[in-house]
Amino acid sequence: MKARWCLLALGLGLGVSHYHCRTRCGGTSIVHLFEWPWRDIAEECENYLAPNGFAAVQISPPSENVVVTQPWRPWWERYQPISYKLCSRSGTEQELRDMISRCNKVGVKIYADVVINHMCSASAGEGRRSTCGSYFNAREEEFPSVPYSASHFNDDKCTTASGNIENYQDIYQVRDCRLVGLLDLAHRKEHVRERVAGYMNTLVDMGVAGFRVDACKHMWPEDLKAIYGRLHNLNTEWFPEGSKPFVYQEVIDLGGEPIKASEYSRLGHVTEFKYGAKLGSVIRRWNGDKLADLKTWGESWGLMPSDQALVFVDNHDNQRGHGAGGASILTFWEPRMYKMAVAFMLAHPYGVTRLMSSYRWDRSLVEGRDQNDWMGPPSYPDGSTKPVPINPDGSCGEGWVCEHRWHQIRNMVMFRNVAHGQPLLNWWDNGGNQIAFGRGDRGFIVINNDDCTLDALLQTGMPAGSYCDVISGQRTAAGMGCTGKRITVGEDGRAHFTIKATEQDPFVAIHAGSKL
Ligand code: AAO
């Protein structure tokens, strides 16, 4: 059945020349260095992210959190704040400060994941079992290090019997009750707004360039607006005068609930969860979905407008069955399809792109559910996080996956920079799972997710010359050699592509920076 598509002839588009970013193109992609220690992030900015054109790092929540021992030090303890002090499993405040400054110096921005919707779980107990040793009493809702006390929480507004969100169809529950039992802050109150903005401003003043704001669906848009309105401009040691923090808000909107992502998009960017769910389904070829359908990828698929969207193939939740997205989500556990999905995302102009950089855990799927979805990062018996060692071949050791260091992904990050601002042109498909498209005259990608060879003469829109495919290899340092396939673009902009269905990475990408 698939073969029918494979027999279809090639199609040709028209190449049009557009603007160029002739100097070194600015970075366009964020990488989430999930659970990384601050010291390793600093090194990564200097040694790897800056030279390879990454724009920014999303860091794990830097605020003090509860220490969970049942199960043992799960990653999700960092989503249970105890105070806004800056000691965490990733390091000390000094290490955080040093990392932000070193990354800024080499032009890599830091976006902090801020957990401001709630504090720890109502059942977290009492004591000093927290990452800076601050005292708290969850039952009494006492967090003296902020300080917050019972009147700063939403108990008076929540109407469910359990005090938790029980029904996502009720917008009042979703905003005023506890998300999975987490003590829900009352952001309409001046003191809470002032404390939250104070925390975010401490980070802005230290040099962060913006925020991933956790659990925004569970906060009222007008309260968030009031908080964002208090944020300082970025630190002028590194950023132009008058620069505002870049804010992207986590709102899970797959449709089917009354709270919409669009309620938040006037305040900042919003996570587009449909992106990874739908793209995963296409790459898996589920329900008759095929790559050719991606010709119209974007708003007509029900995605939010491109200039509001923060997009990703997977995130730290849905790569392990938390949050939302479901079984179609692709992750590093299925590397061949994952790389194809990430390459498509980075080549396509839609949205602001974020890459996931993960660690491995003892995945144990029972009836589709992972029994070990809680496991924290590679760590020593005392719970402290292990450093991220870099192997001689550039990969990471000790269970750190470092998807962002896979050369196919790294090279597509550069593709996106080089193609930035260029329109999608020269779309071609075989009606099935073979597609190609260009970005102005700056880049061209060809993907074969069919069961047969792709063999086609395609209009690339690129200037004539010899290019190095950045997926099977890359240009050598001197610029003349190529460790992968060579693609020759003729005077008419056309080039011949052959991709066998059995290739380890069944896609080819060339761009202005890979010209030989
Ligand atoms: C932990 C334990 C809990 C315990 C709690 C308190 O796991 O058992 O009750 O402590 O003791 C993370 C972990 C949580 C963890 C928490 C605190 O994921 O397991 O709880 O830290 O330590 C909702 C929110 C969304 C949230 C997501 C996980 O809307 O904001 O849940 N993500 C962020 C972070 C996340 C973090 C938190 C928030 C909390 O990224 O890491 O939690 O700070 C529906 C709703 C979504 C909802 C999901 C999941 O989704 O639409 O809004 O996300 O349900 O509850 C289909 C539907 C889709 C639906 C989905 C799942 O796909 O189309 O809409 O099914 O039903």
From TrEMBL:
<dbReference type="InterPro" id="IPR013780">
    <property type="entry name" value="Glyco_hydro_b"/>
</dbReference>
<protein>
    <recommendedName>
        <fullName>Alpha-amylase</fullName>
        <ecNumber>3.2.1.1</ecNumber>
    </recommendedName>
</protein>
<keyword id="KW-0378">Hydrolase</keyword>
<keyword id="KW-0119">Carbohydrate metabolism</keyword>
<feature type="domain" description="Glycosyl hydrolase family 13 catalytic">
    <location>
        <begin position="28"/>
        <end position="416"/>
    </location>
</feature>
<dbReference type="InterPro" id="IPR006047">
    <property type="entry name" value="GH13_cat_dom"/>
</dbReference>
<keyword id="KW-0732">Signal</keyword>
<dbReference type="GO" id="GO:0046872">
    <property type="term" value="F:metal ion binding"/>
</dbReference>
<dbReference type="GO" id="GO:0004556">
    <property type="term" value="F:alpha-amylase activity"/>
</dbReference>
<keyword id="KW-0868">Chloride</keyword>
<keyword id="KW-0479">Metal-binding</keyword>
<dbReference type="Pfam" id="PF00128">
    <property type="entry name" value="Alpha-amylase"/>
</dbReference>
<dbReference type="InterPro" id="IPR006048">
    <property type="entry name" value="A-amylase/branching_C"/>
</dbReference>
<comment type="similarity">
    <text>Belongs to the glycosyl hydrolase 13 family.</text>
</comment>
<feature type="signal peptide">
    <location>
        <begin position="1"/>
        <end position="21"/>
    </location>
</feature>
<dbReference type="InterPro" id="IPR031319">
    <property type="entry name" value="A-amylase_C"/>
</dbReference>
<dbReference type="Pfam" id="PF02806">
    <property type="entry name" value="Alpha-amylase_C"/>
</dbReference>
<dbReference type="GO" id="GO:0005975">
    <property type="term" value="P:carbohydrate metabolic process"/>
</dbReference>
<keyword id="KW-0326">Glycosidase</keyword>
<dbReference type="InterPro" id="IPR006046">
    <property type="entry name" value="Alpha_amylase"/>
</dbReference>
<keyword id="KW-0106">Calcium</keyword>
<dbReference type="InterPro" id="IPR017853">
    <property type="entry name" value="GH"/>
</dbReference>
<feature type="domain" description="Alpha-amylase C-terminal">
    <location>
        <begin position="425"/>
        <end position="515"/>
    </location>
</feature>
